[in-house]
Design goal:
binds zinc ion, 5-stranded mixed β-sheet, binds 5'-O-[(R)-(carboxyoxy)(hydroxy)phosphoryl]adenosine, Nucleotidyltransferase, domain 5, about 350 residues
Length: about 350
């Protein structure tokens, strides 16, 4: 009994984290802040559509959720009855997708009579930085986090694991969307971000120039850049039917470097304004090799300490939901069975 109490006080609880906000069904088991397993089923069904089809995503989550959770528990070497809490993505995201993960999480928590913890997806991307035992450094508070995903682009001042200040965000498209839409224009499958990243490695980033957004303060805009890219490609194809094939590396390198430049400029501004030099990146686009290189280069010239999570914790994953659940539980923030999933949810 005393052992169990000490274990609880030390934050050594077993938490199951479930992520289902978009097109990845993911589950992870954490013991304290350490990840014991992190299992993800990606949905290839969306590839040919150039984007996520919500109805298909919900169906695929329903097919995947039980085997993914089962595998996560088995890999962690525990049974469901040993869990101390279940964290799930409550929002923001696609409502149908959120409902599958949320309903499953609540049912399991109810049957085990353990706490349920609803987690904010964007907070979770940031809190992935606080996972321990994986060999990457955890940023000290306060730190700035550039969270760049398929649905969001934000700069957040993180004062503590439970205190976030949104300094700036996109007014229209997200950075990931800009990558994905550029890829779609080039006839590449969804998600295009990783493919652009690969193609860009052999391209000239200065081959094409696109109209850059002129937004005041720390907010972003990527919709104009997307249109500028589309016009460049349309013009090129008019003159040469093989324009995309002949220029795919340069097109990818040019759009990637433009997106990165926009992101880095705002990040620099935020660092100067807040006088914070612990800088983290999170979200799917933080897997981008060009962004990682640009961040390291800025770190060198600006004297920043940078924090970049491993790939597995950049794109959507159950571990980030698990660590968020663990931290919320520590702070006494427990959810309830009546709380509903939120397609839109302010941080
Ligand atoms: O965080 P995430 O997995 O899901 C959302 O919450 O949206 O981010 C997905 C986004 C997609 O737009 C995808 O194209 C982009 O992250 N992405 C990348 C890379 N890997 C994933 N974008 C650029 N370069 C990459 N290597
Ligand atoms: Zn995400």
């Amino acid at each position: 009994m005393q052992d169990a109490y000490l274990c609880r006080m030390a934050g050594q609880k077993y938490i199951l984290g479930i992520e289902s906000s978009c097109d990845d069904t993911s589950a992870a088991v954490l013991k304290g802040k350490k990840v014991l397993s992190n299992v993800t089923a990606n949905q290839s069904v969306h590839e040919i559509y150039g984007g996520v089809v919500p109805e298909l995503a919900s169906r695929a989550h329903q097919q995947n959720i039980v085997p993914v959770v089962d595998t996560a528990l088995k890999k962690a070497g525990i049974t469901a009855s040993e869990l101390n809490g279940i964290a799930y993505t409550r929002g923001p995201g696609l409502l149908g997708s959120l409902l599958v993960g949320g309903s499953f999480a609540k049912s399991l928590a109810q049957s085990l009579n353990i706490p349920i913890i609803g987690v904010h997806h964007m907070e979770a991307h940031i809190l992935a930085h606080l996972i321990e035992g994986e060999g990457f450094p955890n940023p000290p508070f306060p730190f700035l986090c550039l969270t760049v995903s398929g649905g969001h682009t934000q700069i957040v001042r993180v004062n503590s694991a439970r205190n976030f200040e949104l300094l700036g965000e996109t007014l229209d498209d997200a950075a990931g969307e800009a990558f994905d839409k550029a890829a779609k224009v080039m006839g590449l499958p969804y998600p295009g971000g990783p493919i652009i990243d690969q193609l860009a490695k052999e391209g000239n980033p200065k081959a094409f120039t696109f109209g850059k957004p002129k937004i005041e303060g720390l907010n972003f805009s990527f919709s104009g850049l997307k249109t500028s890219f589309l016009y460049t490609v349309q013009k090129g194809v008019k003159a040469d039917a093989d324009f995309i094939k002949n220029n795919k590396h340069d097109l990818a390198a040019s759009i990637q470097s433009t997106i990165i430049e926009v992101l880095m400029k705002k990040l620099e501004k935020a660092a100067t304004q807040t006088n914070i030099n612990h800088i983290a990146i999170a979200g799917g686009v933080s897997a981008n090799s060009g962004l990682r290189t640009a961040l390291e280069a800025r770190a060198h010239t600006k004297g920043w300490s940078t924090y970049i999570p491993p790939f597995a914790y950049c794109t959507d994953n159950g571990a980030m939901i698990g660590i968020s659940g663990q931290l919320k539980l520590e702070a006494g923030e427990i959810g309830d069975m009546q709380e509903s999933s939120q397609a839109r949810w302010q941080m």
